[in-house]
Amino acid sequence: MMPSSPLSLFPEALRESVRMVQRSRESRLAKRQRGERVEPLSLSDRRALLREFHPDHREEGRAQLRVGPSQGSWLPEELVALLHARPRPLVMDLMERARTHGGLAASLTTDVLVIGGGGAGCAAAIVAAEAGVRVVVATKLRLGDSNTVMAEGGIQVADHECDSPAQHFLDVMGGGHFSSDPDLVEALVTAGPAVLRWLEELGMLFDKYPTGRMKVRHGGGTSRQRLHAAGDVTGLELMRVLKDRLACLDGITVVPFAPAVELLTDESGRAVGAILEQLPGGRPLIVHAKAVLLATGGLGRLHLNGFPTSNHHGATADGLVLAYRAGVPLRDLQNCQYHPTGVVFPEKLTGLLLTEKFRGLGAQLLNRHGDEFVFGLEPRDVTTAAIIRECSEFENGVHLPGGGVGVWLDIPLIDWIHGRGAIEREFPGRFKEYLHMGLDLRQVPLLAYPTLHYQNGGVVIFPNGGTDMPGLFAAGEVTGGVHGRNRLMGNALLEILVFGRRAGAAAAAFAKGAKLAVDAGLGHLEAYLEQLDGAGIQPVQSSPRLLPAYGTVRPV
Ligand code: MEZ
Prior knowledge:
The protein has helices spanning about 10-35, 45-55, 75-85, 90-100, 120-130, 145-150, 165-175, 180-200, 235-250, 320-325, 355-360, 380-390, 415-420, 420-425, 430-435, 490-510, 525-535; strands at about 60-65, 75, 85, 110-115, 135-140, 155, 225-230, 250-255, 260-265, 270-275, 285-295, 330, 335-345, 365, 400, 405-410, 445-455, 460, 470-475, 480, 540-545. It is built from 17 helices and 21 strands. The protein has two domains: about 10-55 and about 340-450, Succinate dehydrogenase/fumarate reductase flavoprotein, catalytic domain (Flavocytochrome C3, Chain A, domain 1); about 85-145 and about 235-335 and about 455-530, FAD/NAD(P)-binding domain (3-Layer(bba) Sandwich). Helix content is about 35%, strand content about 15%. The strands form six sheets. Strands 4, 5, 8, 9, 10, 11 and 19 form a seven-stranded mixed sheet that branches. Strands 13, 14, 15, 16 and 17 form a five-stranded antiparallel sheet that branches. The protein has a three-stranded mixed sheet with strand order 12-18-20, covered by helices on one side.
């Protein structure tokens, strides 16, 4: 039931500020119609802003990695602590058995083991099964529980006449500060149109005009409108069709509630399986596989720099730990993505996403005086730094009585720009969700502040999804190189499909030419523990963490 006044849910201290935003809407719209706007920053201004205000550039909160192939890198201290940690107790017990028995006997065997049941893992499993190999998908929670399912705003694909993969390539390279691997970016953008056709064939429902033409929008840092969406539930709709396809295929076994806690390797250093730790209870499941594919997602639930996160509960960097202990290098992990608009109020939703599509359709970011202070479609890292500066140095943030601070995202402006009904039509998910709580997005702005959203870097891969380790493939957020130091909106959904499919195909091909190992063990782990010892590191925790240590969901 709707409250009596649109403002009744806001604390008294905020109501005058909301009214000011409402009062200034008409004149801001008129300005917009006259083409007056806050201009995008010059390259040098962007750089200076990032240096001073983006969390990646803070001196504190980093630590140096002291072992392994990326030794010497300065990374978020929460991540370094996991990489310097000892294995989980279950693995320590199995290590002794592996040593004395010359390996660990299998509870389950397969051709390809896919670790992770989000978008990248499902896409990989589908392609591998279609290539005729047996696949096991081991997933920490249920199939589909992942950041993919929470993705709202859309997927970037250059498929319209005024656009091209070359244009998309330049945007990705520029958005990532020219630090991406160009071969990976080329693979990403050129496969886009085919991936879109595949999704349509699988039955995904995109936003379209009555003529059947796909609607496309701008995202931050994009030179063309190329964001394709399914309302504001793009990831949910994407997972729906992937899960349907996966369920139709023979040869795929899904093992839910079974996170991988260590890879298995053979004498030659090939990846030959993994140890899964079944939830709850922690019983081991030893899987032998001819090829292993990591699609474990990101690290948002490590709450780097104390930020809230938009990520699902399983995003605890597990894949990074597994791959790194096995000797696979990491890249770009000093750069994380703080999405500019996480929820600040209502407080119970703190950190959850307010999609960039709101800004793509004209919602403005306003400070406590009701002034627009940044061009709304700067690349994400720039917008984030501008919000942090506005709330810190300029002291122009809106303060909640309970301590939170943020800036207004004036969502109702969207209906004023595009006509009544636009908000309900374009944001069916968030519109209903907030209405249910008593907040009508057609009438009130929401308070926003950056939230930890994405792990820009990760495991180093080749364009086919292979890694330095024979038999080990990786795809999706666990990998690095596609987005360089800053990802643009909508490229994550594209990445999980392009590289999920590539890695699935490459893993299947590898498996066809490989045999199951007879000596699947933990030799790589013993070597890693020796390195920790040699560096004088005495681990105080174990990893991978599996779940964050708060709330009602507890690690086992
Ligand atoms: O790619 C993303 O992270 C995305 C589309 C997020 C959003 O704002 O909706």
